[in-house]
């Protein structure tokens, strides 16, 4: 059984280039040292073999790092990932893979779009399958790119993109300006409460109060830290015209089957009358925040609802509304 290690760039091209250099150097030495004896030739040959042996040792070390032993009838090789993608749509090739009479391959979707005519040589693709490439692709196992964040899944190459789109270990990025931290959802929450202030701790299904500055740009958001470790942002768009637009987002991958609803209440008390604004919606899942605000779901708070200290006092309640096993 073969184990494949994917790496950027064309490994085979680099290998040919390296071997070519050795051959050029050897030819040059033969021209300069044509009078050397057989013993010198053997010494020079020994050096080349030693260099090639180091290459093999490096590959074997990679296999051992991944827990793969050399005694299980397997080999560890490297392959350029570009050869595993369709040359037309650049999506991962997956069986069935068809080829023309000259061996050019394309994915089934592109074959249909091109009316079964080869995009390189214009020969007809008669549904002749490239079985060897299918076997190579099926044998490749790929580690998730989010392994350093805790994901230990290994999957076929054809499933890599779909898995990473839904991976629960996808990194989240710190929303604080000029802070470049990234990590899993749990890592981001721990980073934020240890490195940044202020934030508000809360318990689900309980009302708690948050105060936001009304003046422009003073409070773009207020961080809310749940008792289960989820990090929320109560966004305060104070550039939205005659008032402030309030909305809420939650830092977590979209694949997690846990949803949150929130309710915002802002009251106004003066000598004439009492009025109240109420708003209920679902928190938007995000992994990073670039300073943009929702334009279709928000609570508009007019300037007249601010306190004498030009603060917006908001009663907040966050609830878990759905919880199923993550995929």
UniProtKB/TrEMBL annotation:
Q: Output the PROSITE patterns linked to this UniProt entry.
A: ZF_SIAH
Residue ranges with Basic and acidic residues bias = 20-33
In the record, biological process GO terms are: protein ubiquitination
Q: Does the keyword Metal-binding apply?
A: yes
GO molecular function annotations of the record:
ubiquitin protein ligase activity; zinc ion binding
- Catalytic reaction equation(s): S-ubiquitinyl-[E2 ubiquitin-conjugating enzyme]-L-cysteine + [acceptor protein]-L-lysine = [E2 ubiquitin-conjugating enzyme]-L-cysteine + N(6)-ubiquitinyl-[acceptor protein]-L-lysine
Instruction: Mention any Pfam family matching this sequence.
Output: Sina_RING
Q: Which UniProt keywords apply?
A: Metal-binding, Transferase, Ubl conjugation pathway, Zinc, Zinc-finger
- The protein's name: RING-type E3 ubiquitin transferase
């Amino acid at each position: 059984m073969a184990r494949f290690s994917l790496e950027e760039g064309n490994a085979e091209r680099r290998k040919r280039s390296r071997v070519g250099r050795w051959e050029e150097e050897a030819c040059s030495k033969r021209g300069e040292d044509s009078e050397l004896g057989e013993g010198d030739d053997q010494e020079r040959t020994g050096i080349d073999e030693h260099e090639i042996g180091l290459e093999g040792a490096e590959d074997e070390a990679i296999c051992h790092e991944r827990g793969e032993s050399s005694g299980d009838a397997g080999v560890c090789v490297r392959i350029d990932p570009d050869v595993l993608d369709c040359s037309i749509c650049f999506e991962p090739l997956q069986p069935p893979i068809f080829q023309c009479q000259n061996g050019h391959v394309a994915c089934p979707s592109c074959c249909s779009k091109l009316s079964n005519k080869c995009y390189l040589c214009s020969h007809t693709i008669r549904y002749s399958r490239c079985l060897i490439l299918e076997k190579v692709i099926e044998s490749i196992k790929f580690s998730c790119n989010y392994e350093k964040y805790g994901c230990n899944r290994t999957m076929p190459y054809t499933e890599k993109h779909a898995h990473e789109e839904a991976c629960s270990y996808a990194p989240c990025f710190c929303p604080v300006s000029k802070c470049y931290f990234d990590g899993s959802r749990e890592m981001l929450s721990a980073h934020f409460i240890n490195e940044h202030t202020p934030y508000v701790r809360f318990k689900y299904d309980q009302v708690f109060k948050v105060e936001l500055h009304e003046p422009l740009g003073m409070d773009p958001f207020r961080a809310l830290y749940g008792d289960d470790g989820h990090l929320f942002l109560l966004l305060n768009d104070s550039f939205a015209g005659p008032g402030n637009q309030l909305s809420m987002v939650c830092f977590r991958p979209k694949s997690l089957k846990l949803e949150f609803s929130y309710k915002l209440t802002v009251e106004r008390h003066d000598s004439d009358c009492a009025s109240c604004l109420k708003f209920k919606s679902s928190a938007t899942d995000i992994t990073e925040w670039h300073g943009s605000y929702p334009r279709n779901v928000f609570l508009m708070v007019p300037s007249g609802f601010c306190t004498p200290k030009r603060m917006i006092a908001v009663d907040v309640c966050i609830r878990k509304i759905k919880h199923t096993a993550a995929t």
